[in-house]
Q: What sequence folds into this?
């Protein structure tokens, strides 16, 4: 009996090392003259495992370094530029949005002068049909391999009355929405 | 050799195509996620000046229209003007004897002596007149008189407008 008890304890000790994997009950019979040990072991037949991973959005956006307007046939100044995004990988339903802003409210000016020349930015190229911007959004790209591009058309509202070096700075802002 | 030449020509052609310049690319790790881009255009000054043509002064005429002087078309830089200077001897010289002269003056149509004017915008003119007073006509010898005047055009910076 003593031997059985020893074996029982050894078994209990061994099983306790993997207590996380098994559930068991020990019942000790308090009857005199012997110790009966009943060991019940319940092994788990299945486990639920959560598998999780996160894919962060990735993209590369290219913006022109500068845009130089040239005379159009009607005397206004115009030019096209291209913004692009490559290897765009976003969350489901998300869009890579590029907006444009100007501290001067899209006015070219000559340094040292109060003369201003207003211009607009539209979607389209020199030769294609132009579309006005909505909320200053110049492009909205979705998840796609390779490169996506959007042509932008810059044009002054009027023929410049004055000669000189006109300049302005626009800011392209990229966001995922 | 022909193949090498073809390759070299193709390479030269590729090099001659201007590449679009882009600002530094922006990716998911960029901060801030924005790019500042300069928009610019350079417009050279242009203008067309109107100068009076040759004119014949009728005998005994106290004032003869010389024509108009000024800017026909103009796209100038702000603060710049086109200045036209008149250089005249103010003496009509006898073609047979240059020592014999008839004094004259060039004035505006309203009679103000003219030597120069500055113009800032297109369609700006000054009407000029050639004036010979009665005593000068009376003192003149018979004959044909002439003089050549010179108009000098200068593009210059001014304080106005």
A:
């Amino acid at each position: 009996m003593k031997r059985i008890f020893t074996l029982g304890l050894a078994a209990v000790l061994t099983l306790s090392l993997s207590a996380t994997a098994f559930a068991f009950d020990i019942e000790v019979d308090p009857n005199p003259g012997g110790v009966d040990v009943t060991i019940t072991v319940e092994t788990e037949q299945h486990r639920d495992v959560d598998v999780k991973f996160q894919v962060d959005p990735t993209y590369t956006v290219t913006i022109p370094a500068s845009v130089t307007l040239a005379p159009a046939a009607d005397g206004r100044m115009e030019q096209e530029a291209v913004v692009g995004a490559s290897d765009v990988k976003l969350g489901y339903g998300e869009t890579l949005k590029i907006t444009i802003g100007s501290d001067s409210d899209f006015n070219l000016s000559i340094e040292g002068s109060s003369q201003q020349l207003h211009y607009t930015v539209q979607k389209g190229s020199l030769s294609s049909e132009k579309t006005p911007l909505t909320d200053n959004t110049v492009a909205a790209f979705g998840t796609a391999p390779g490169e996506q591009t959007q042509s932008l058309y810059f044009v002054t509202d009027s023929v410049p009355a004055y000669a000189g070096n006109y300049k302005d700075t626009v800011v392209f802002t990229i966001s995922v929405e | 050799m022909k193949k090498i030449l073809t390759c070299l020509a193709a390479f030269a052609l590729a090099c001659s195509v201007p590449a679009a310049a882009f600002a530094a690319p922006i990716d998911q790790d960029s901060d801030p996620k924005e790019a500042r881009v300069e928009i610019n255009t350079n417009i050279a000054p242009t203008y067309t000046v109107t100068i009076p043509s040759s004119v014949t002064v009728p005998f005994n005429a106290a004032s003869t229209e010389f024509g108009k002087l000024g800017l026909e078309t103009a796209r100038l830089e702000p603060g710049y003007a086109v200045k036209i200077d008149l250089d005249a001897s103010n003496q009509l010289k006898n073609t047979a004897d240059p020592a014999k002269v008839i004094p004259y003056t060039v004035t505006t149509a309203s009679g103000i002596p003219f030597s120069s004017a500055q113009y800032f915008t297109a369609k700006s003119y000054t009407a000029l007149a050639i004036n010979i007073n009665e005593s000068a006509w009376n003192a003149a010898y018979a004959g044909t008189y002439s003089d050549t005047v010179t108009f000098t055009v200068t593009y210059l910076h001014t304080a106005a407008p």
